[in-house]
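Researcher: Quick one. two chains, 676 residues in total.
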Amino acid sequence: MAIKLNSKVTYLFKKREFGIFLFILILLAVFGTLEPRFFRSDNLSAILSSVGILMVVGAGQTLVIVTRNIDLSVGSTLGMAAMVMGMVARENPDFPIFGLIVIAMIVGGLCGLLNGFLVSYGKIPAIIATLGTLAIIRGAVFLVSDNVQIDPNDVPQGIINLATTSPIGIPWLLIFAFLSIILVWYVSSKTLLGKRIYAVGSNPEGAISRGLSFNKITIMVFVFVGVLAGLGGVLYTARYATINPADVGRGLEFDVISAVVIGGTNIFGGSGTALGTALGCILIGILSNGLTVVGVSPFWKACATGFLILAAVAIDNSVRKRQEQNFLLAIRNQRTVK
Amino acid sequence: MSPLLKNNPRFKVPGYLVGPILILIIAMTYGSLGSEYFLDPSSIIFNTGRYIEIGLLALALTFVIINGDIDLSVASTLAASAGVLAKLYESGVPILWCCVASIFTGLVLGLINGLIVIKFGLPSLVVTLATLALYRGLTQVILGDGVVANYPESFVGFDQRLVIGGDPGLPAPLALFIVAAIIFYYILHRSNYGLKNIMSGSNPSSSNFSGINLDRVRLLAFTLSGTVAGICAVMITSRLGSTISNVGLGLELLAITAVVLGGTDIFGGRGAISGTVVALFAIMAVREALVIQDINGQVQDAAIGLLLILTVLVPQIRSYYVEKRNRRKRFNEAQSRT
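Model:
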């Protein structure tokens, strides 16, 4: 029993997610002792709602990074979806809320489809393609909106309510966030599609030679992150109630990618979990809010995020190297026994 | 065409220059439709002043990208160097020493990038994404919300000075760029280091076996890119006459676009200084043409993004059709033989 418990504990400690979880606890303790107001309910709900938007987009980004790609255009996609949705709502105030959400997700999905085609059939490296679409979609937001922002009184009340209310107590925003994380967890660990996505990420040539359609999976993953970014656009509108063509979702890609990388997803593809991404999002949310609450200049936030990414990647790398060494050692030992 | 020029390899335009030259011509035509003064030589020459920083960054980035690495943090390195310059000047250090310190800061930051990438064996994409935030954050910490201005008369207005007088004249930034381009041309295409650089990008393992110190080559490229960012910080401060923390925000997109547009392979191993130079002027022409036609800044960025994608996409499509044609030709030949 003791041995079993011991092995369970060591298993837990070996888990990447557990380390992030511990770090979150430490951060909470530090911020809580420095400034008790950190734990006030309105502050916690502010953290959660900003984390929710990150989580929705981060869930999709995890799968993209697992396939060895990266989507830098998520911020612009989110902006595009929110803007189109806001304009539809402005023209037809009686449009059903569900219809608006679907419109935003479709717009996001179309942006994702563009990225997917460029990366798969166009054979453009994802970082270049999405660096381009980052600017293109942002320009399209301006062209579509004619540089006019959507004011809070043009946003239907039903959308704004998504950020605060729901039938079961926790706001819709968080329900959407958890649902998208659970969806990614389910797809990646329980379905054949998930296995294929991870196979393409860990060994593209091998996956192709086993008959997987590389292009199809790449497009699927990009459309998926686009749809989730569209949903993120809805949540952004719910939270801020204003859609400014220049501001909406700007710089989001950085936070999302940081969260995914901190969450343990390998930037070279092939590994990464939804749970890790969720914890990474929470970590970033707590860090940026906590620094402000404690009274550190918000300017340190970018520094801290940069450090975190570096630390996360460095730790990840050393762990991977050690695993490889252990693996090689194990093989050698087996041979000598024989 | 005279027989001397026709089919003479010495006068053949390299393939990678065709795209940028076409873009240059189209943009020039489009701009001259907007205003008759667009093609005025002295206005063209003076407009170059705003793009020289991008050009220098792109020249240095060419080395990094040929190595198969990428440096997303150049604009942030520039900002941090400018921040050091501003802060030192504010505390009463003579302006000359401030400039030296700024260039030195760029060197150190580039060296840090390179050391992290090489010593930890991490992907440069993630590392420089992290330092993009880190260095920008440092700039914000150094400068805060403030503006540093009141630089001495002898320091500001570098771009207004003429090296060669006269009506079109030769402004100092353009002269500097020409000199820099020639120097970089000699380093990349005529020197030992350039050869090592291209070789280590095209086939790292075989270059390693042939005795090239890969780490040193890559480290030098990162340091070069940082140092040039430091020099650009001095230039941009002199040109703008003031420093704020978001100086040079988003310049990395333009610089990387210039490098890729100029035919440098984003995966490394191939590239030319002449391509980067022509591509810079193409980007400049596009920007200026859009400015003259009174088009929104975000849409200008979108046009640059579109350019970036098209320059990678068009050769892919072309090679697809060429390959298809060759395959058909081979098929027909085989049939006619039987």
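Residues 50-313 of chain A form a domain with the ABC transporter involved in vitamin B12 uptake, BtuC fold (CATH 1.10.3470).
Researcher: Thanks, that's what I needed.
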